[in-house]
Amino acid sequence: MDVKSRNYLLMNRQALENDIKTSYIMDRMISDEVLTLQEEERVKQQNTRKERAAMLINIILTKDNNSYRSFYNALLHEGYRDLAALLQDGIPAVSSGNRKSSMDGMTSYDCFPGGVHWISVGKQDKAGLLIKLQNLCSRLEHDSAFSQRPPLNIEEAKDRLRLLMLRKYPRSLLVLDDIWDSWVLKAFDNQCQVLITSRDRSVTDAVAGNKYEVHVESGLAHEKGLEILSLFVNMKISDLPEQANSLVRECKGSPLVISLIGALLRDFPSRWEYYLRQLQNKQFRRIRKSSSYDYEALDEAMSISVEQLDDNYKDYYKDLSILPKDVKVPTKVLCILWDMETEEVEDILQEFVNKSLLFCDRNGKSFHYYLHDLQLDFLTEKNRNQLQDLHKNIVNQYKKYYKLNTPVLSQEDCMYWYNFLAYHMAGAKMQQELRDLMFSLDWIKAKTELVGPAHLIHEYVEYSSVLDQKDSTVRENFQEFLSLNGHLLGRQPFPDIIQLGLCQPETSEVYQQARLHAQRETGTFYLEWINKKSLKNLYRLVVRPHRDAVYHACFSKDRQRIASCGADKTLQVFKAESGERLLEINAHDDEILCCAFSADGEFVATCSSDKKVKVWNSRTGQCRCVYEEHSEQVNCCQFNNKSGQYRLATCSNDTFIKIWDLNEKYCRNTMIGHENSVNHCRFSPNDEYVASCSTDGTVKLWEARSGNELKSIEIKDFFKNADEQPDDVEVLVKCCSWSRNGNMILVVAKNKLLLFDTNTCGLLTQVIVSHHSTIQYCDFCPGDELVAVALSHCSVELWNIKSLSKVAYCRGHMSWVHCVTFSPDGSLFLTSSDDQTIRIWETKKVCKSSDAVLKSELDVVFHNGEAMILAIYNQKYLQLINGNTDSVIMKTAAQESPISCCCLSEDLKFAAFGQESGTIKVLQLSDGKVLKSWEAYRTSVQRCRFTPDCQTLISSAHDSVIQVWNWQLSECVFLRGHKEAIKDFRLLENSKILSWSFDGTVKVWNITTGSPEKDFACHGGAVLSCAVSPDGSKFSSASADKTAKIWSFESSSVLHELKDHEACVRCCTFSPNNKLLATGDDKGEIRIWDVLTGALLHFCSPVTVDEGEPTHGGWVTDLSFSPDSEMLVSSGGYLKWWNVTTGESLQTFYTNGTNLKSIHVSPNFKVYVTVDNLGILYVLQKF
User: Fold this and answer.
1) pLDDT at 750 over 90
2) Which pTM does this prediction carry?
3) CA 291 – CA 81 distance, rounded (Å)
C-alpha cells in the first residue's frame, strides 16, 4: 500500500473505528477478492463492534493498494459517505507495467518504486556533511548517463540530489538516520519523501511539507531485549548464558545500549561477565565502540546530546542529576527548585524533551517528566562531585517554599515530597534536618496517611547510617513503632497516631513525642496505658498486604523478600525488612491457596481454586507459564530445592500430585495413589523424593524422577481407639515437613504432631499439641530441633521435637492462622492469618518469652483511686493485681480444674471463683486461703457475684438454675423457672435479682424466698443483655431477634420497642441522667435512643471503614456512659469513645488482640480495664 494511502488510514482510524459496522463492508471486500474468509473470521471473533472495526483496519494496513480502493468503495456503497470523503485524497493511483524488485543495489518496496535509500548521518560539521552528500550522489549516479564530477559545495550537492531524485528515482524514500541539526536536514530537502530518526523533534521545523511523527517507545521489554541479544550472537534465547538476563536488566530497556552490547558480544563472545560488570559499575567509557557504531564509547553517545544544549540550559539539565529513578516528576517540583513560573519551567523542559534528553507524560492537565535510567546513570556519574550540593539546593528550595508547613494532597507536588524529601536530605548529608524530619510524629502521620508505613520503614533502614549519629536507639524506636503498627496505619479510618505513640514504652522517643503532643492538644481525648511495661512485643514486623484472608506466605532463599497469597485472588511480593510492596498481581480468578519461590528466587508459583497453576517472574510480574491439567482446586505448590533446576510439585482435590518442568509445556509426571483430596506436598531436601498428605488419612512418599510410590503411612491408625476399625476413623492429614537431612518427616493431623523415620516409616514420637484447636500447618526449623505449628485458635506454638516440650507460645493474630514458615536460616519465621495480616517473628526472641495468658472473665473494684483486678491466669491460677502499679498482690496455688469465672467482694476481703468442674470456692484475699468450697454444678460455672453484705454468693452455669449460696452458713436457695440456660443476672435492691435467659424471658427473683416476683416474656429470641435505669423504674432488654425493648417494672409492660438494628443486639445501658439508652449490635453499630419517646437520636459509626472490615472490629459487647451522660465508651474488636450529643467518635484504642468481652469503668470515667482474646490486660487512664 502506498505510504500516502496508509497515512490516510492511520490519520482517520479513530473516526472509522467509532462508526463503521464491519459485516456488510467485509461482504463487498470478499467479493472484490481482497479479503479472505479466514480474515473475516478473525474480525468476527472480536467482542465489540469497535474491536471488530479495529481488527479490519489492521488487516487492511497489511495489504496492497487494491484493498484500500475496495474499502473506500465499500464505505460509499454502505452509506458511510462522510467517512469515505476522509479517505478520498489517499486513493492510490492505478499504475501499469512491471516493477523492479531491486534497483541498482537500492532497496525497493511496492510503495516506493524508486527505492529506499539509507544514509547514516550522525553529528556533522559542514565538511562532513558535504562528504555524506557526495557519497550519496555517487551511489545514485553510478549509471553512466548521469555520471559527473563530485559536487564542490553543499548547495551544488543539494541541487544535484534534487535532480537525481526527480528524474531517476521518483517516488523513492530517503532514510536519514540520526539527524542532530536542522541545517543538516535542509541539505536533503528536495521534495522527496524522507524518513528521519532524531533525538530532537524540532529539527523538522526548518523544512517544508507535511510531517508525520511516529512515537517510539523509550524502552524495550525484557523478552524483546533478550531476543535482540540472541540475534546479535546467533543463539537461541534458551541457550543464552545466565548473564543475559542481568545484562538486559542493566541496559534498562535502552535499544541503544542493547544494540551496542550485542554488537560487542558478537565480536567478543567471551565477554558477557565483563560487560555486565562494566554496566553495573557505571563504567560507560569501557564499553568501547563496535565497527557498526559511530561513537567511541557509550558515555560519548550520551554526552554528545548534552553538549548540544545552550550553556544556560546545561545547568538546568545538571539539576536533573538528583532525580530519583523510575519516577515521573510533576512540573511544580521543578518550579520550586528553579523558583520559576510553570510556563517558564515547561519551556525549558520542552527543549530537553525535543532533544530526547527527557521524557514527558501528560496526566490530565499537568505534565510529569522523567529520565531514562541510563541517562540518569550517566548524569549521576558525570556530576558525581556536585551531587551533594545539588541535593542541598533542592532541600533548601523546598524549605523556602513551604517554610514550616507540609504539602497537602490537593497540591500537585505533594506526593513527590512525601516520597523523596528524605532521599534528598540524605543525599545532601543534612543529618540534623533528616533526623528532625524522620523523627517527627507530624511527618510520620502525614506520610503514612498518604502512602502507608512500608516506605517509611524502608527509609529508616536505607538512611540508618545518616540517622544513627551517636547511637541507633531513636531510629530503632521509630522503626519498631511503624513495624508493629503498620497493619493499623494502613486502614480506614486512619488511627490517631498520637494515641498509638502513647502505647509505646515510656523510654521510647516515640512515646516522649506523643506525650508532648497530648499535653499540647488539650481538647482531644487521649489514654495512657498504665500497665504496658509488662508487655513484650515478640514480632518484628506486621504487614497487611491483602484485603482478605492470607492463606500462605513464604520467604525467598536470600530472606530479603516475602511472597503471599489469599482469598483476594492476588499475589503480593514485598520486602521482608520493611513490608514495602514490590509486586501486586491479580493472579487468578478464584482464591489463591499457596505460593512458593523457586530456589534462586527468580520465579514465584501460585495455585488456586480456579484449578490453575501459574508461574510468575518474581521481579517483573510477567506470567511465565500456566498449567491447567488439574481438574479440581489445586491446594499446594512447591519448587524443588536446588538452584538451576525449575521443577514444581502441585497437588489437588483431584487426588493427583503432578511434577512440572518450567521448560516444558506439559506435566512431567503424575503420581496416582491417593483416594481423596491431596492437601500438601513437598520435595525432600535432596529433591529425590516427594511427600504428600491427603484427606484419605495417609502420607505417601514418591520417587520424584519416576513418579513411583515408594511408601505409604496410614496416619489414621494413630487416632483409632482400641475398639475401632481404621475405616471408621476419618483423619484429614493437613501438612508435612522434612528434616534438614531428609531422615525424618513431620506430619500433622487433627491436634497431633507425628514424627516418622523416612527409611522405615516407623513412628519416632508424637505430641498432642492442643485439646481445644486443630493444627493448620507445620514447619521444621532448619536446625531440626524446633517445630512451628499454626493453630486454629489464633496462635502459633514452637515445640522442641527432641525434648517434646513447648518452648514458645506466640500470640498476636486475631483469627485462624493458616501458615507458619521459617526463613532459610531459621532466624525468623512468618505467620499468615484470616485477620489479613502477616507477622514476622524473631525465633530467639520468641523462645525466651513466657506464655502467660489471662482469661477475659475478670472482676474489678475501684477503691481509693486504685483499680483492683481479680484475673484468671493461665486457667489454673487466680491473681489479684493492682492495676495502677501492675503488681501482683496475691496469687493462688494451681487448681486441679480450670477456673472459668471469678468475682471480688466490694470490701476487697474476699474473692470467689467457679471452675469447669462445677465447683465454687471462696477465699480470703489477705493470704489466698480457701475458706469454703461448694460442689454446685455438674457443668462449668459461668457467673458468680457477691451480695453487698459479702455473705452470699449468687452463681449460674450452663443450665437454667441460679444458686444463691450463703457460704458462711452453708445454706443454698435454688431459683428455678427459666426453661433454658441463664445468660446473666444482676443484683437489685431489697434482696432481689434480675435474670435473663436464652429462652427469651426476664425474671425478677426474691433471693431470700427463692420465688419469682415478676416474669417478662420479652423476646422471641435469646435475651443477650439487660440494663436497669438509675432510678430503678425501668429496665431494657437486648435480644438475638435484632430488637431492644424498654420495660416498666411497675406495670410489667413494654414501653418502647426499638427496631432499627440489622443484627443481634448484644448489649445495652442507660445514661446516669435516665434520659438515654445506648444499644450495640453484632454488626458493630451503636444506637442512642430517647428513653421517654423511644426515638432514635444518634447512630454511632465511623465515617469510613475498609471494605470487608466490621464497623467496630466485630461485635459491640459492652457499653458505659460517663457520669454527665455526655460520653460513651464501647468495647468490641477494640475500644471506642463517643460524643453522645453528636454521635461522633472521639478516640479509638487498638488492643493487640480483639474480641473484648467487657469494659470496667471507674466511677469518675477516667480509668478503664479490659482483657483481649490474647489474654493481655489493659488498664487505661484518661490523659
Assistant:
1) no
2) 0.70
3) 55
